[in-house]
Amino acid sequence: MRPERHDEGGGGGLLVPMEWMYAEYIADELLRTGDLMPPTTLEYRAGRDALALTIFLSEGAVGGPGGVARMDEWRTLTEYGTGWREWVCHQLDLLETRVFQAERTGTAVHDPDLELALAAWRWLEETELLAPDLDAMGPPGGDPLVAGRGGAERYEEEGPQVWTPAWQLGLPLGHLAIHLF
Length: 181
What we know:
Number of helices: 7
Number of strands: 4
Strand order of the largest sheet: 1-2
Oligomer: single chain
Strand content: 5-15%
């Protein structure tokens, strides 16, 4: 789906990022249906953005006769160990290359969908969230910083905490939401 143009009074126009908005809407619905966490949290945003990128970059909507196949594709793309980050980078590079080539030929059209997708990816890459350290083995070796603020008491309650890129937290959240749908 190409961005829609709404002309107001004859001059210029507004390009509406329909593809991105649709992908974000589907991602939001999946997360809300899964009821995994409050929509006001950064973790929720990470899950929504990771799912929206997956939906947007896989170039397909959930509606229609292929809806189940699309959900299966998204589930496969978001599985642990699938190289989701590399896939996202590759897909975004392809889209940026198309825009660059269109600029060189003079047929470029401003693409607000791509801009929003790139902004979401930057946020997912650059934002770090405090999350449980799933790779930690055993109790911390006496270093209270390993367990985060609160030392051993916090470790016993929540386990060790680490700062992790938002996408690493959002991706499994999105994957779980797809499974629960």
